[in-house]
Automatic annotation (TrEMBL):
Residues 26-196 form the N-acetyltransferase domain. This is GNAT family N-acetyltransferase. It comes from Kineosporia corallincola. Keywords: Acyltransferase, Transferase. PROSITE patterns: GNAT. Transmembrane segments: none annotated.
Length: 196
């Protein structure tokens, strides 16, 4: 099976993971540490477009320095999806690394990772973009000998919930309150997908 790591160049540069010989071919690539500007741009775009889907906000992330964007790229696997003649970015998804704060709470942190920061541009939705992004993340997770993926979804985000369910994630039953603004809390719900 092709994995993200298999498809990295010797200099660590991103190569195409998947491509289709169609007019609107979709490609999925991994970002390198030097791509921090691309990551910042797509994350800010996602936060501005879907402010209620994420645990952090546009204004907060605007203030994040370059060194933090770079360390996010080295600590985790970030994939973007591109399409069209201009290779427009239409989606992003992240697989956390072993040393990120949330991982320490996991029962078996060595074998479990979180999927985070999933977003698809509105014009590209319902065309299988997240299906492709998550399939690539799963391939990378398997390559890293990860047994299980987990993620959190805010309770009002029914579309994301349904999309993850359709792609094989199941509710764990765990819920927790998340502070989304001063004095404003929402519940988030956990889902998991066994890879083995
Ligand atoms: C949730 C989201 C990532 C889905 O991305 P997408 O590329 O449109 O999803 P896909 O086209 O790959 O669809 C995969 C499956 O999800 C389900 N799905 C996707 N959108 C759906 C919708 N609007 N209603 C119902 N089911 C939906 C379908 O079952 C679909 O499978 P199918 O096409 O075989 O029916 C996208 O809507 C999005 O970016 N939303 C805003 C940001 C967000 O909520 N991120 C998640 C944070 S946890």
């Amino acid at each position: 099976m092709s994995t993200v790591a298999d498809l990295m160049g010797p200099d660590g540069s991103a190569k195409t993971l998947h491509s289709q010989p169609k007019r609107q071919a979709l490609t999925v690539v991994r970002l390198r540490a030097s791509d921090w500007g691309v990551l910042k741009m797509v994350r800010l775009r996602a936060l501005r477009e879907s402010p209620k889907a994420f645990a952090t906000g546009y204004q907060t992330e605007c203030r994040v320095p370059r060194s933090v964007w770079q360390s996010r790229l080295t600590a985790a696997t970030w994939l973007i999806a591109r399409t069209g003649p201009d290779h427009e970015i239409v989606g992003v998804a992240c697989l956390t690394g072993p040393d990120e704060p949330g991982e320490q709470n996991l029962v078996d942190a060595g074998r479990t990772r979180y999927v985070e920061a999933v977003w698809v541009a509105p014009d590209a939705r319902r065309q299988g973009v997240v299906r492709r992004l998550l399939s690539s993340l799963e391939a990378e997770a398997r390559h890293q000998h990860i047994d299980e993926l987990m993620l959190w979804v805010l309770e009002h985000n029914r579309i994301a919930w349904e999309a993850y369910r359709h792609l094989g994630f199941v509710p764990t039953g765990e819920e927790q309150p998340l502070r989304v603004a001063p004095g404003r809390w929402v519940q988030e719900r956990c889902m998991r997908k066994q890879l083995v």
